[in-house]
Write a structure and sequence with these properties.
mainly alpha, Tetracycline Repressor, domain 2, 10 helices, 0% strand
Length: 207
Amino acid sequence: MTRKPQQSRSRATVDAIIQAGFLVVAREGLEGTTTRHIADAAGISVGSLYEYFANKEAIYDAMYEHIVRDIVGTIRPLIPKLVTMGERDAVVELLYQFRQLLMRDQGRYLHYASYAMHLAQREHLEPLKRMLHDLLTQYAMHHPRVLKIQSIPAMGYIIINGGIFAVIRHLSEPAPVINFETLVKGLGDMVHYCIEGALEEAGSGTD
């Protein structure tokens, strides 16, 4: 079980271990990374590392929680702006912000996310799920026509998760077949066409 840091020095050590984890995973990959690699990068002994984390999997879990917290901290302040935009522009803005976060600090978040999206414990995703639910709810309040779409929760889930994975895969490829601008435009168009098609089926394609 991960030790909970109580003092500022302990919190600083935990943060150093987490940041070292990102650096080492970028260099060694998930399988190649060891607790000794992480301890060396953090400037501490392996014994000190084990005072805070039981194994490297516990460190990976803390790294994922750290990424989720940063995503929420980046996107939540943008919600008031995003909900006033058309769906295409909102998708473009959201995905560019996501790319900027992933590429921060020489892409350390991207390296980890491309390996480990499936490793997180569910409770660590709750802040992200709540934030995205708030975004969808507020967007619907500003664009009431989308409330006519009965499948909006499923549509939102597919669009958000599909967009996230598409961006991570694109940024992880050494030679993607399309540029990022084309990807983002395509995702924005897809969202627009999905909404318009669903509204047409519901019997109304206008505000």
